[in-house]
TrEMBL record:
The lineage of its organism: Bacteria, Pseudomonadati, Pseudomonadota, Alphaproteobacteria, Sphingomonadales. GO terms for biological process: post-translational protein targeting to endoplasmic reticulum membrane. InterPro entries: PduO/GlcC-like, PduO/GlcC-like_sf, YBR137W-like. This is Uncharacterized protein (UPF0303 family). One of its GO terms (cellular component) is TRC complex. It comes from the Bacteria. It comes from Novosphingobium sediminicola.
Amino acid sequence: MDADLDALAQRESDLILPRFSNDDAWWLGCFLRDAGASCQAPIAIDISVGPTTLFTALLPGATADNLGWIKRKVAIAWRYQKSSYLMNQKFAGGENMFERFGLDHATYAAAGGAVPIRVAGVGMIGVVAVSGLPQLDDHLMVLDALGALQNKQKGEA
């Protein structure tokens, strides 16, 4: 991994929350929606815990196709317990990783924008996903939002 990818991987692994509730999902979803609206980003947003969707939104310009991308990005995040962007970078190594691991492109997408929700003492409980921007921008938007939630929760403790 290069230095930038190492830094992103470290940033992702540092995003461990003390808790995650339905109210946190709402706050996080509204944060992402406001961030997207402020720059007129045509994004779809999805926050799920296990198989349950707690927040979903389509901003102007986003379509059901973005939700399809989210579903496939979330699937790869769950399978590997890592963000879809980190898996994209791992799969970009030249070898056909989809073929090697028997992954179906209709089910999985190794494209940035889906980041695990991790809770201290529990592990991965869900995924926050954005689709509609270039994949690194999708990924960074989610990392920024999770960082904001983490800071908010630390301030409440």
